[in-house]
Hints:
The protein is an alpha/beta fold. The protein has two domains: 2-222, 3-Layer(aba) Sandwich (Rossmann fold); 226-301, Alpha-Beta Plaits. 32% of the residues lie in helices and 30% in strands. The chain has a six-stranded mixed beta sheet, sandwiched between helices. A four-stranded antiparallel beta sheet has the order 2-1-4-5, with helices on one face. The protein has a four-stranded antiparallel beta sheet with strand order 12-13-11-14, with helices on both faces. Helix 4 runs antiparallel to helix 5 and helix 5 packs parallel to helix 6 (168-184). The longest helix is centred in the middle third of the chain and has 17 residues, at 168-184.
Amino acid sequence: MIEIKNVSMVFERKGLAKGGEQFKALDDISITIPDGCIYGFLGSNGAGKSTLMRMMCGVYKTEIGSIEIDGRSVWDNAAAKADIFFVNDETVQYANFTLEALGKYYASYYHSFSQEVFDRLVNKLSLPKTKRLAEFSKGMKRQAVVIIGLSCMTKYLMLDEAFDGLDPAMRRVVKNLIMDEMLDRGATLIVSSHNIAEINELCDRAMLIHKGKLIFADEIDEIRGGFRKVQMARKNSPVTRGELEAAGVQIMQYTCSGSVVQAVIRGTEEDIMRRLSAIKTDITEIIPLTLEEIFIYELEARGYGSGIITED
């Protein structure tokens, strides 16, 4: 289990002023990642997803708050790091390795490295073992590094934009490959992606951060169950925002077109219907939201992409 408690990260931008300027990349983040789950990291560009992953695997030191993996701090702890493999969003550092050499390199650090898994996955994806990764396409590089991560047989695998550069068919192949390998041994997968539908399909839990702050973290079914789109029609006069607010619902977005009103409301369907029961309408319809819609509405409510993100 990974426990992240009250974690903040402050960077200093140098050269902007005497002594630099401080920038808070993470602001009091607390989440728990249970063993054996697939956990999705969602967030706007620059939200802090990659920073948090680097802290979780010991690249950055946790100075504010704490991160414990199975009860151990990972910073400067070789035994804890042996249980983690981190695939970051860059592959340039592997350019001069062949895939075969890269496997041997990581086998020297990870005693759990499985040559059998490595050979099987390389053959399955038909990647050349003796060709330098500098000669690989972007998608082939991503496949190669994922193979290394799976072959190290760690308890925790962290993938930062791991499917970037893969065409749709290969994305599905690699996702299925990861799922098969990780689930077979009960390992924990943490994955970040800008493809929200992918997170919805792949993960059973997710969190959303924006500007370093945690917006939500829960099981995906619980997240989706906590938001609804409500459409209401009334002939004589449309339902006003004030009427909805007086009913005690939390409105994320309100639009009105003629006699039809559409509102995105935070809450369960049962609670929303109970609160709106006193408002007389000709038609009231409750519609579930997708994870992508929740992502957009949550960020719009915080001013992200204002004037750019519009509804169809």
